Amino acid sequence: MLKRLAALTTLISCTQFAHAITLPTTSGSITIDANLDDAPWKQATQVELTIETRPGENTPAPVATTAWLIADDDTLYVAFHAKDPNPSEIRANLSDRDRAWGDDLVGIKLDTWNQGRLAYQFFINPLGVQEDSIENELTGQESDAWDGIWHSAGRLTGDGYIVEIALPLRLFNFDDSLQVQTWGVELVRFWPRDKTYRLSNTQLDRNVACTLCQMSELTGLSEAKTSRQLQITPSLTLRQSEERSSESSPWVSSDDLDFGGDLRWNLTPDTLLNLTLNPDFSQVEADAGQLDVNTTFALFFPEKRPFYLDNADQFETYSNLVHTRNLAEPEYGAKLTGARGDHSFGLLQTRDEKTNFLLPGNLSSDIASLGLASDNLALRYRYNHSDSLSLGAIATGREADDYHNYTYGLDGRFDFNSQTYVEWLLVGSDTQYPEDLADQTDGEQATRTRQLEQNGTHFLGELKHETRNWDAYAIYRYTDEEFRADLGFIESVDSAKTILGGGYNWYPSDSFFTKVRLNGDVDETKNNDGERLEREAEFRFGAEGGYQSYLALWGVTRERRGRRERPEDLVLDGNAPMFDETFGGLNIEFKPLSNLELEFHPLYGDDIDFANNQPATRTQLSSYLKWQPLSHIVLEVDHLWRELKVDGGTLFTANLTDLRLNWQFSVRSFLRLSTIFRDIDRDPSLYESHEVDPTTRALSTELLYAYKVNPQTVFYAGYADGRFNDGFDNGLEQLERSVFAKFSYAWLL
Questions:
Q1: Is residue 390 within 8 Å of residue 410, measured between CB atoms?
Q2: Residue 286's pLDDT is what?
Q3: Which residues, other chains included, contact 42 with Cβ-Cβ below 8 Å and sequence gap of 6+?
Q4: Which phi and psi angles does 478 have, rounded to 5°?
Q5: Per-residue exposure over 423-447, b if at least 16 CB sit within 10 Å of its own CB, e if not
Q6: Residue 646 contacts residue 614 (beta carbons within 8 Å)
Q7: Calpha distance 455→484 (Å, rounded)
Q8: CA dist., res. 423 & res. 223, Å (int)
Q9: DSSP 522
Q10: Which of these, 134, 190, 473, 486, is most buried using a 10 Å CB contact count?
Q11: Between β-strands 252-268 and 130-136, what pairing exists: parallel, antiparallel or unpaired?
Q12: Cα–chain-centroid distance for residue 403?
């Protein structure tokens, strides 16, 4: 029942916390309207959420919550009645899917293989807004990128709120050869007031490193069968774009009309096939703004596209070997994923018309684009040998004319007991670069790509011990100079890093603060020749408390290399100077009002001016505001201000503002204005090695209307434009503009 609990005493103590829930079945119909007046609810199993697991430690829940569970032949139904002594304080806002965190929420977590490895999560706010995700115990990550098609309704009442949920069994992979299903289950309520209280039907032992292994058991669904359902989603995208080189130049327009389609088919109870043809993989919503100034490594952008997100957790490893954002212009794609018992697998194949990949180094990285079509493949397999041992294998490949990159590796995790585990990853690579690639790059990347054939290895190992009050870990990461993972995002090569760290937790009672943590680590990084790249020590003192606050004081002292004076020479000593840095900052996050969230992150201390390879002083303030003046309107403003000073004056002052204003008409439709403004002022006289523009300004704006019946049946329409300055004044010229529309419809056959 509980996983990875090798120590007998811990197994006994945790088993008493998990309760079995019997799931009855019904032939009656249930309408999802948040009324609970359908007859089958009278036959449902009733479960009380009586335990506060956070911030309290398995203490009595401060408010009453009742859940009901029942199923028919193809659907699991769940209902909640969340009572509240002060219903006027309930936080319920209309918002887009997966954007309701911070509201009152109720939900269910399901581990359909009852292995303590993966769990589906479904949460709903009092107005029926859906949140779904997949929690991965092995990686410690929760991905809300996964979107299932399910149904929910919510309604405020005089004593709280009621929610109904219908979860079609086609959402899940499970072993339908069993006469009776036994799933891991946890029923959860988030009650945000002075603190965010997490309420549950199951106790959680903080001395056990895993959480999914402590879920209760849900038994029932007699002779349930997984769906063989076929989902076909055709799409139509229209876009008219105009560009010009200056305000005095004429507009050059282009019109695009694209038909595409996706297919999602459960070939067997545990095997899913995804196909896409001529997909529209354009970004419907703008990426969050990032500031690319005084940086030497490429920026990372997360994946948002549905085809790649479906079952993406199957391809995860401890290092990022499959980063599908690299696949810029796919012509078609196929993905086969599945799991049965202790085995899971994934296969991804895509034809990419552009072929972008990362050129890594140990002091910098950059993005290369071949402009050639490539065939791309990823293979993943995992075997859960036992509750304590998991083994995996992965292989990736990219091919285009005289270019290829292949990786092949093994990974695993072994749990010595419920508190201590080790995980590892060993990968090899085989790469051939085109002859002219080095001529298209510069700096460290040009030097590293002149050798056309390269073969390398990458290793990562982590040993971690985690208990209620303290934790310790040791990490070793090695990447030799010829290792490449072009389908992934590993930006540092020719390096070996060792990290030793740990922390201690306090849980004060009857105090403003509910958790206080002191932690830190030391690390050292060297290149493959033993030359030091970096040595660092850092600490953090943080506390969680009232007003849903998080406060932290942190500091870092380190030695770090600047850029190479001779880029063609990869040695460090006598070529890349070492700088001493000491800096620190504060993290301040809190909700002074139920509809207002604020964050402030000031930073001050030493830095490196990479343009001139000299010491500098950085002053930075990152701030965030989220304000919901009405339940259907939300304003988010994310602002970053950074100033870098050197001997002689201020090298640059940079501002980045990301503003999102959202008007949610209903659970299904919204209108969103997104604006990203970048503003960098430089002093050209302080740049010794090259010329720079005194000003760099860019303003991108997008107005988007969306109507979503479900995550795949959607309609988008919008307008976007880009405005830029000429580098010498404050004016902004409109040089890009476009209108677009996209429609897709999911047929469930």
A1: no
A2: 63
A3: none
A4: -125, 135
A5: bbbebbbbbebbeebbeebebbbbb
A6: yes
A7: 8
A8: 37
A9: E
A10: 486
A11: unpaired
A12: 31
Rounded Cα–Cα distance for residues 325 and 300 (Å): 9
pTM for the full predicted model: 0.88
Per-residue pLDDT tens over the stretch 86-103: 999 999 999 988 889 899
Contact 316, 271 (CB under 8 A): no
Amino acid at 620: Q
The secondary structure element, H or E, covering residue 455 is strand 453-466
At 65, which helix (H) or strand (E)? strand 65-71
d(CA 148, CA 143): 13
C-alpha closest to that of 525 among 559, 490, 502, 557:
559
User: What pLDDT, in 10s, does the model give residues 171-198?
Assistant: 887 878 888 999 999 999 999 998 999 9
Q: What is the pLDDT of residue 278?
A: 78
Q: Of the candidates 70, 23, 31, which has an alpha carbon nearest to the alpha carbon of residue 151?
A: 31
Q: Is the pLDDT of residue 727 over 70?
A: no
The pLDDT of residue 8 is 32
Token pair listed for 5: 């609990």
**70 φ/ψ angles, rounded to the nearest 5 degrees:** -160, 160
DSSP code per residue over 358-427: EE-BSS--EEEE--S-EEEEEEEEEEE-SSSEEEEEEEEEEEETTEEEEEEEEEEEEESSSSEEEEEEEE
Q: Decide if 438 contacts 446 (C-beta within 8 A).
A: yes
Q: Is 543 left (phi over 0), alpha (psi -120 to 50) or beta?
A: beta
Per-residue pLDDT, 472:
98
DSSP assigned state of 487:
T
Report the range out of 334-343, 616-625, 725-734 with the highest average pLDDT. Answer: 616-625
Rg (CA), the chain: 27
DSSP symbol at 14: H
- 667, 163 Cβ separation under 8 angstroms: no
What is the CATH code for 8-220? 2.60.40.1190
Per-residue pLDDT tens over the stretch 701-711: 999 999 999 88
